[in-house]
Sequence to fold (430 residues):
Amino acid sequence: MSERKAWQELELGVELPAATSLGYKTGGWRVLRPVWNASECTHCMICVSYCPDMAIPVTKSEEGVAGKGGRMFKGIVRLETNLDYCKGCGICAHECPTKCISIIREEEAEQAACKL
Amino acid sequence: MPTLQEIALKTDGVDARIVSGHRMCSGCGIGPLIKTVLAASDKPVIVISATGCLEVVTTIYPFTAWNTPWMHVTFENAASVASGVEAAYKALKRRGKIDGDVNILAVGGDGGTYDIGFQALSGALERRHKFMYLVYDNEGYMNTGNQRSGATPFGASTTTVPAGKVSFGKPQWRKNLVEIAAAHRIPYVGQAAVHNTLDLYKKAQKGFNADGPAVLAVLQPCTTNWSFDPALTMQYSKLAVETNFWPLYEIENGFVHISTKPSNRKPIEEFLKGQTRFRHLFKPGNEHVIVEMQKMIDDEWARLLKLEESGIQF
Ligand SMILES: Cc1ncc(C[n+]2csc(CCOP(=O)(O)OP(=O)(O)O)c2C)c(N)n1
Ligand code: SF4
Ligand code: SF4
Ligand code: SF4
Ligand SMILES: [Mg+2]
Fold:
């Protein structure tokens, strides 16, 4: 029989540092790739709030970024999709009200990149 | 109420409480659901997670997607552990060992809530701990491959009630967890869906700020076990609401309030079609199942309208 311990003497469970999954790149799962056309974007944030993988970064922009109709969008805006994490579900493209995200096959994207 | 832009900065900005690199299936509805709920807390949040997809996919050792204190407990006791955390926090505050306020969030899947964690949940509500219980409802035990739960809808085929020659799938209607929770006379119970970010955020905020226990039930399409194109997650969530299959409503201090009333409710087939778990319902001989399902949905909706109109307190 092992010795009985008071609860204060029990060992802690595993304690992990926070947010370490950022070191695990889920982009490798992707077969389809969302391609964002920034010049048609209204920065409505629908794609951001729907993205299951938090793969669309947002920032606060004082000077603004150019979007749909050449307008400058100031305040909270989205940035280029982070392909390290995007799994290519296609929700963003399906739900974008201005249809400014298109979906291409990952091989097409890679072939296009090789030609450059 | 913040704008979608302000919410996006909280869910996906540098201080996000849950981050990328988790291993949910592509297109899983849990991602947007949990990030929106976490963002709705204006205080630090302590999360207690029952076993299920959310827990499994966010904490595959040695990784964690949580950027807020988080604890994994067994399948059945998320609400009990949340009770203990709340009591401990109060005790430490009383002794001056800790400062400030926190929100405590217990999270479970429908299996972990409607079935196996139900007793723990009821006890915690009855003891009136100040915490919010969130159930992400994908209508089955999905982490283990689609077994039937108390939340699985009538007519759905699962591995434990498979549809076939003698069975049309689950023969019972689902449990009404929202009303059961309200019967505990708690200050806040809400029912939301993942596609309606603003409504979900608002309900989560009310739950966190309630003066006592709160329960939030959110429908979460499961791309893998409902088996549809992952791009359609939000469309299925929307159809569940537009068909009155999953009404958006809340019970605040006992009073029912319906959040949105579809002006022209869509026939239930619109929600069912394209999902493998309902595929058999479109085969000859099973027409009666859809008719029965439609009738139950319409009856339930009429009942909900009456509850709201009557102004009778739960
Ligand atoms: C007591 C116990 N029984 C069974 C299991 C195996 N198990 C792990 S996750 C899971 C399914 C959970 O279903 P639900 O709560 O609906 O969450 P979901 O997986 O759908 O997210 C099961 C059965 C377990 N971990 N503990
Ligand atoms: S949904 Fe479309 S328009 Fe809106 S922010 Fe995303 S890309 Fe831009
Ligand atoms: S395809 Fe899916 S994972 Fe990739 S950015 Fe769009 S919503 Fe996010
Ligand atoms: S099985 Fe379903 S609920 Fe679980 S991670 Fe996959 S899509 Fe999400
Ligand atoms: Mg489930």
Remarks:
- Chain B touches chain A through 46 residues (CB under 8 Å).
